[in-house]
Amino acid sequence: MNSIKVKQEFNAPIDQVFDLLSKHATYNIAFSPVQVVRVKDSADPERPDGLGSIRRMGFGPIKPVQEQITLVDVNKRIEYKIINNPLIKHHIGILEFTELAQNKTRVDYTIELQARAPFVSKLILAQLKLAITLGFKKLAKSV
């Protein structure tokens, strides 16, 4: 399985970093100009971007990528998967949160991906790694 891992430290408490990265709208800032919108709320009214929620990603009215949140362990872990994408056989994203100190948090972001077409996975993952690294650096400066 092809995968990437990005690590980023934030100078903020773990609950603040988790809250930031558990909201779909945050990814509009991190991955601009890519746009992210929630299209299905989770069953938890206090955490509409939580377990079971679905977000779409893309540009303008065209947002072909759908991701569903499959696990939320507050201040510890978020997992999601791509759904309804005929080009992707397997895609899982995992964000793990580690408290390094009272106001310092590390996020380990792992993505596993297998595209249906050979050799495409490595290309997609290379682009994702660059975008996530840059986006997370931008977010880390904002907190």
Helix content: 25-40%
Return residue spans where pLDDT drops below 50 for at least 5 consecutive residues: none
Strand content: over 45%
Distance between the termini: 34 Å
Number of strands: 7
The largest β sheet comes out as:
7 strands, antiparallel
List the helices and strands in order: EHHEEEEEEH
Quickly give the structural class.
alpha+beta
CATH structural class = Alpha Beta
Over all CA atoms, what is the radius of gyration? 15 Å
What is the total domain count? 1
Do you know the CATH topology?
Answer: Alpha-D-Glucose-1,6-Bisphosphate, Chain A, domain 4
Q: What is the arithmetic mean of pLDDT?
A: 95
CATH superfamily: START domain
SSE layout and pairing:
Elements lengths: L1 E9 L3 H8 L4 H5 L4 E6 L13 E6 L2 E12 L3 E7 L4 E14 L2 E12 L4 H23 L1
Antiparallel strand pairs: 1-7, 2-3, 3-4, 4-5, 5-6, 6-7
Pfam family, one: Polyketide_cyc2
InterPro entries: Polyketide_cyclase/dehydratase (IPR019587), START-like_dom_sf (IPR023393)
Protein name: SRPBCC family protein
